[in-house]
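Problem: given the chain below (309 residues), write out its structure.
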Amino acid sequence: MDSTGPIVIAGALVGFAVGLTGMGGGALMTPIMVMVFGVNPTAAIGSDLAASVFMKPFGALVHQRAGTVRWDIVRWLLPTAVPAAFGGVFLLRALGDGAELQQRVKFVVGTALMLAVAGMLARLWLDRRRAGTGTEDAHVPVRPVATLLIGLVGGVIVGMTSVGSGSLIIVMLMLAHPRLKANHLVGTDLVQAIPMVAAAALGHLLVGDADLGLAATLLIGAIPGVLAGSLISSRVAGPAVRWALVVLLTGSGLAMLKASSTVVLLACLGMALLGTFASLRDRRTARLQPEPQPQPVSEPEAAGVTGGS
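Solution.
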Protein backbone atom coordinates (compact mmCIF):
# COMPACT_ATOMS: atom_id res chain seq x y z
CA MET A 1 0.00 0.00 0.00
CA ASP A 2 1.39 3.43 -0.97
CA SER A 3 1.88 5.53 2.18
CA THR A 4 3.09 8.67 0.40
CA GLY A 5 -0.15 10.58 0.96
CA PRO A 6 -0.42 9.82 4.70
CA ILE A 7 3.28 10.70 5.19
CA VAL A 8 2.74 14.05 3.45
CA ILE A 9 -0.26 14.70 5.72
CA ALA A 10 1.79 13.73 8.79
CA GLY A 11 4.54 16.11 7.66
CA ALA A 12 2.00 18.91 7.23
CA LEU A 13 0.55 18.37 10.71
CA VAL A 14 3.97 18.30 12.36
CA GLY A 15 5.11 21.33 10.37
CA PHE A 16 1.97 23.17 11.43
CA ALA A 17 2.72 22.40 15.09
CA VAL A 18 6.30 23.62 14.67
CA GLY A 19 5.19 26.85 13.00
CA LEU A 20 2.56 27.43 15.67
CA THR A 21 4.71 26.80 18.74
CA GLY A 22 8.36 26.60 17.63
CA MET A 23 8.71 23.14 19.15
CA GLY A 24 7.76 19.52 18.67
CA GLY A 25 9.29 18.73 15.24
CA GLY A 26 11.56 15.78 15.94
CA ALA A 27 9.62 14.90 19.07
CA LEU A 28 6.49 14.34 16.98
CA MET A 29 7.83 13.16 13.63
CA THR A 30 10.17 10.41 14.81
CA PRO A 31 7.56 8.51 16.89
CA ILE A 32 4.98 8.95 14.11
CA MET A 33 7.38 7.39 11.60
CA VAL A 34 8.10 4.49 13.95
CA MET A 35 4.68 3.73 15.42
CA VAL A 36 2.34 4.70 12.57
CA PHE A 37 4.34 3.93 9.43
CA GLY A 38 6.58 1.16 10.75
CA VAL A 39 9.87 2.85 9.82
CA ASN A 40 12.97 1.54 11.60
CA PRO A 41 13.85 3.88 14.51
CA THR A 42 17.32 4.69 13.14
CA ALA A 43 15.91 5.46 9.67
CA ALA A 44 13.16 7.59 11.23
CA ILE A 45 15.73 9.62 13.19
CA GLY A 46 18.00 10.15 10.19
CA SER A 47 15.15 11.04 7.84
CA ASP A 48 13.59 13.47 10.31
CA LEU A 49 16.93 15.23 10.77
CA ALA A 50 17.42 15.46 7.00
CA ALA A 51 13.98 17.03 6.62
CA SER A 52 14.64 19.42 9.51
CA VAL A 53 17.72 20.80 7.74
CA PHE A 54 15.41 22.29 5.12
CA MET A 55 12.54 23.15 7.48
CA LYS A 56 14.42 25.07 10.21
CA PRO A 57 15.64 27.97 8.01
CA PHE A 58 12.06 29.15 7.33
CA GLY A 59 11.50 30.09 10.97
CA ALA A 60 15.08 31.27 11.43
CA LEU A 61 14.78 33.71 8.53
CA VAL A 62 11.69 35.30 10.05
CA HIS A 63 13.51 35.90 13.34
CA GLN A 64 16.65 37.16 11.63
CA ARG A 65 14.61 39.78 9.77
CA ALA A 66 12.88 40.74 13.01
CA GLY A 67 16.22 41.14 14.82
CA THR A 68 15.36 38.56 17.47
CA VAL A 69 18.50 36.40 17.19
CA ARG A 70 21.22 36.65 19.84
CA TRP A 71 24.26 35.86 17.70
CA ASP A 72 26.62 36.00 20.68
CA ILE A 73 24.72 33.11 22.30
CA VAL A 74 24.69 31.23 18.98
CA ARG A 75 28.47 31.58 18.75
CA TRP A 76 28.90 30.02 22.20
CA LEU A 77 26.47 27.17 21.47
CA LEU A 78 27.89 25.96 18.16
CA PRO A 79 31.46 24.97 19.19
CA THR A 80 30.03 22.14 21.30
CA ALA A 81 26.60 21.58 19.71
CA VAL A 82 27.82 20.79 16.18
CA PRO A 83 30.50 18.18 17.05
CA ALA A 84 28.28 16.72 19.77
CA ALA A 85 25.39 16.25 17.32
CA PHE A 86 27.72 14.58 14.80
CA GLY A 87 29.27 12.39 17.49
CA GLY A 88 25.88 11.45 18.89
CA VAL A 89 25.19 9.52 15.68
CA PHE A 90 28.17 7.24 16.26
CA LEU A 91 27.35 6.95 19.95
CA LEU A 92 23.96 5.63 18.86
CA ARG A 93 25.59 3.07 16.55
CA ALA A 94 27.66 1.85 19.50
CA LEU A 95 24.48 0.49 21.07
CA GLY A 96 24.58 -2.55 18.77
CA ASP A 97 23.21 -3.55 15.39
CA GLY A 98 20.26 -5.28 13.76
CA ALA A 99 17.05 -5.85 15.70
CA GLU A 100 18.84 -5.35 18.99
CA LEU A 101 19.88 -1.85 17.95
CA GLN A 102 16.35 -0.92 16.85
CA GLN A 103 14.91 -1.98 20.22
CA ARG A 104 17.52 -0.02 22.11
CA VAL A 105 16.95 3.02 19.91
CA LYS A 106 13.22 2.86 20.74
CA PHE A 107 14.15 3.01 24.42
CA VAL A 108 16.53 5.94 23.85
CA VAL A 109 13.93 7.85 21.81
CA GLY A 110 11.23 7.11 24.41
CA THR A 111 13.49 8.47 27.14
CA ALA A 112 14.24 11.58 25.06
CA LEU A 113 10.50 12.11 24.51
CA MET A 114 9.84 12.00 28.24
CA LEU A 115 12.68 14.51 28.73
CA ALA A 116 10.98 16.65 26.08
CA VAL A 117 7.72 16.45 28.04
CA ALA A 118 9.57 17.58 31.18
CA GLY A 119 11.16 20.37 29.14
CA MET A 120 7.84 21.55 27.76
CA LEU A 121 6.28 21.56 31.23
CA ALA A 122 9.27 23.54 32.49
CA ARG A 123 8.87 26.01 29.63
CA LEU A 124 5.18 26.51 30.37
CA TRP A 125 5.99 27.15 34.02
CA LEU A 126 8.89 29.48 33.19
CA ASP A 127 6.79 31.39 30.65
CA ARG A 128 4.10 31.98 33.28
CA ARG A 129 6.67 33.05 35.86
CA ARG A 130 8.44 35.40 33.44
CA ALA A 131 5.15 36.96 32.37
CA GLY A 132 4.36 37.70 36.00
CA THR A 133 7.67 39.43 36.73
CA GLY A 134 7.78 41.61 33.63
CA THR A 135 11.60 41.65 33.69
CA GLU A 136 12.36 40.33 30.20
CA ASP A 137 15.37 41.89 28.51
CA ALA A 138 16.81 41.45 25.01
CA HIS A 139 20.33 42.37 26.13
CA VAL A 140 21.13 40.04 29.04
CA PRO A 141 24.82 39.02 29.07
CA VAL A 142 25.69 35.62 27.65
CA ARG A 143 26.92 32.93 30.06
CA PRO A 144 29.71 31.21 28.10
CA VAL A 145 30.37 28.09 30.22
CA ALA A 146 26.69 27.29 30.73
CA THR A 147 25.99 27.89 27.03
CA LEU A 148 28.83 25.59 25.94
CA LEU A 149 27.45 22.84 28.22
CA ILE A 150 23.95 23.33 26.79
CA GLY A 151 25.35 22.84 23.29
CA LEU A 152 27.19 19.68 24.37
CA VAL A 153 24.23 18.02 26.10
CA GLY A 154 21.66 19.14 23.55
CA GLY A 155 23.81 18.16 20.59
CA VAL A 156 24.33 14.60 21.82
CA ILE A 157 20.59 14.13 22.44
CA VAL A 158 19.66 15.54 19.03
CA GLY A 159 22.27 13.41 17.24
CA MET A 160 21.04 10.25 18.94
CA THR A 161 17.29 10.81 18.79
CA SER A 162 16.46 13.91 16.63
CA VAL A 163 14.51 15.10 19.71
CA GLY A 164 15.36 18.24 21.62
CA SER A 165 16.42 21.02 19.24
CA GLY A 166 13.15 22.86 19.88
CA SER A 167 11.99 21.38 23.18
CA LEU A 168 15.05 20.75 25.37
CA ILE A 169 17.71 23.24 24.29
CA ILE A 170 15.37 26.22 24.50
CA VAL A 171 14.42 25.27 28.08
CA MET A 172 18.09 24.99 29.05
CA LEU A 173 18.68 28.41 27.47
CA MET A 174 15.80 29.80 29.53
CA LEU A 175 17.34 28.42 32.71
CA ALA A 176 20.79 29.82 31.84
CA HIS A 177 19.43 33.22 30.71
CA PRO A 178 16.19 33.58 32.71
CA ARG A 179 15.54 37.22 31.77
CA LEU A 180 16.10 36.87 28.01
CA LYS A 181 13.03 37.79 25.97
CA ALA A 182 10.91 34.86 24.75
CA ASN A 183 11.09 35.80 21.06
CA HIS A 184 14.89 36.11 21.30
CA LEU A 185 15.03 32.66 22.89
CA VAL A 186 13.04 31.15 20.02
CA GLY A 187 14.99 32.98 17.33
CA THR A 188 18.36 32.07 18.84
CA ASP A 189 17.36 28.43 19.21
CA LEU A 190 16.11 28.20 15.62
CA VAL A 191 19.31 29.68 14.18
CA GLN A 192 21.71 27.51 16.18
CA ALA A 193 19.64 24.44 15.33
CA ILE A 194 20.41 24.72 11.60
CA PRO A 195 24.13 23.77 11.73
CA MET A 196 23.56 21.42 14.66
CA VAL A 197 20.81 19.48 12.88
CA ALA A 198 22.84 19.54 9.65
CA ALA A 199 25.79 17.93 11.46
CA ALA A 200 23.54 15.23 12.91
CA ALA A 201 21.88 14.62 9.52
CA LEU A 202 25.31 14.32 7.86
CA GLY A 203 26.35 11.73 10.42
CA HIS A 204 23.23 9.65 9.82
CA LEU A 205 23.72 9.99 6.07
CA LEU A 206 27.29 8.68 6.36
CA VAL A 207 26.20 5.60 8.34
CA GLY A 208 23.30 4.97 5.94
CA ASP A 209 20.41 5.81 8.25
CA ALA A 210 18.90 8.78 6.42
CA ASP A 211 16.29 7.97 3.76
CA LEU A 212 16.34 11.04 1.51
CA GLY A 213 13.21 9.94 -0.34
CA LEU A 214 11.32 9.73 2.94
CA ALA A 215 12.73 13.11 4.02
CA ALA A 216 11.60 14.69 0.72
CA THR A 217 8.12 13.26 1.16
CA LEU A 218 7.92 14.71 4.66
CA LEU A 219 8.99 18.11 3.36
CA ILE A 220 6.18 18.21 0.79
CA GLY A 221 3.75 18.57 3.68
CA ALA A 222 6.03 20.07 6.34
CA ILE A 223 7.06 23.26 4.51
CA PRO A 224 3.53 24.55 3.82
CA GLY A 225 2.57 23.34 7.29
CA VAL A 226 5.30 25.45 8.89
CA LEU A 227 4.29 28.49 6.87
CA ALA A 228 0.61 28.08 7.75
CA GLY A 229 1.38 27.59 11.44
CA SER A 230 3.64 30.64 11.49
CA LEU A 231 0.98 32.81 9.83
CA ILE A 232 -1.70 32.05 12.42
CA SER A 233 0.58 31.65 15.45
CA SER A 234 -0.47 35.05 16.78
CA ARG A 235 -4.16 34.14 16.59
CA VAL A 236 -4.11 30.88 18.55
CA ALA A 237 -3.36 30.51 22.24
CA GLY A 238 0.17 29.13 22.36
CA PRO A 239 -0.14 27.49 25.80
CA ALA A 240 -3.23 25.52 24.71
CA VAL A 241 -1.37 24.07 21.72
CA ARG A 242 1.66 23.29 23.87
CA TRP A 243 -0.50 21.39 26.33
CA ALA A 244 -1.87 19.34 23.43
CA LEU A 245 1.72 18.55 22.43
CA VAL A 246 2.51 17.55 26.00
CA VAL A 247 -0.33 15.01 25.92
CA LEU A 248 0.78 13.62 22.54
CA LEU A 249 4.44 13.36 23.53
CA THR A 250 3.56 11.71 26.84
CA GLY A 251 1.58 9.03 25.05
CA SER A 252 4.16 8.42 22.32
CA GLY A 253 7.09 8.44 24.76
CA LEU A 254 5.48 5.89 27.06
CA ALA A 255 4.47 3.76 24.07
CA MET A 256 8.08 3.73 22.83
CA LEU A 257 9.11 2.62 26.32
CA LYS A 258 6.57 -0.23 26.02
CA ALA A 259 4.35 0.94 28.86
CA SER A 260 0.98 -0.77 29.17
CA SER A 261 -2.07 0.75 27.49
CA THR A 262 -3.55 1.53 30.91
CA VAL A 263 -0.46 3.48 31.97
CA VAL A 264 -0.39 5.40 28.68
CA LEU A 265 -4.08 6.27 28.92
CA LEU A 266 -3.88 7.38 32.57
CA ALA A 267 -0.76 9.48 31.95
CA CYS A 268 -2.32 11.23 28.94
CA LEU A 269 -5.52 11.83 30.88
CA GLY A 270 -3.53 13.26 33.79
CA MET A 271 -1.64 15.64 31.51
CA ALA A 272 -4.89 16.71 29.82
CA LEU A 273 -6.49 17.46 33.20
CA LEU A 274 -3.40 19.35 34.34
CA GLY A 275 -3.46 21.43 31.16
CA THR A 276 -7.17 22.16 31.55
CA PHE A 277 -6.68 23.23 35.16
CA ALA A 278 -3.72 25.46 34.25
CA SER A 279 -5.63 27.08 31.37
CA LEU A 280 -8.67 27.78 33.55
CA ARG A 281 -6.46 29.28 36.25
CA ASP A 282 -4.70 31.52 33.74
CA ARG A 283 -8.05 32.76 32.40
CA ARG A 284 -9.30 33.47 35.92
CA THR A 285 -6.10 35.36 36.73
CA ALA A 286 -6.40 37.39 33.53
CA ARG A 287 -10.01 38.35 34.37
CA LEU A 288 -9.07 39.45 37.89
CA GLN A 289 -6.24 41.70 36.76
CA PRO A 290 -7.32 45.36 36.69
CA GLU A 291 -7.33 47.04 33.31
CA PRO A 292 -4.66 49.70 32.91
CA GLN A 293 -6.05 53.18 33.59
CA PRO A 294 -5.23 56.04 31.20
CA GLN A 295 -2.70 58.46 32.65
CA PRO A 296 -4.16 61.87 33.45
CA VAL A 297 -2.81 64.74 31.36
CA SER A 298 -1.32 67.55 33.39
CA GLU A 299 -2.44 71.14 32.82
CA PRO A 300 0.87 72.26 31.22
CA GLU A 301 0.80 69.31 28.86
CA ALA A 302 -2.80 70.04 27.91
CA ALA A 303 -1.95 73.66 27.30
CA GLY A 304 1.01 72.65 25.16
CA VAL A 305 -1.16 70.41 23.04
CA THR A 306 -3.74 73.14 22.60
CA GLY A 307 -1.21 75.78 21.79
CA GLY A 308 0.48 73.68 19.15
CA SER A 309 -2.66 73.14 17.11
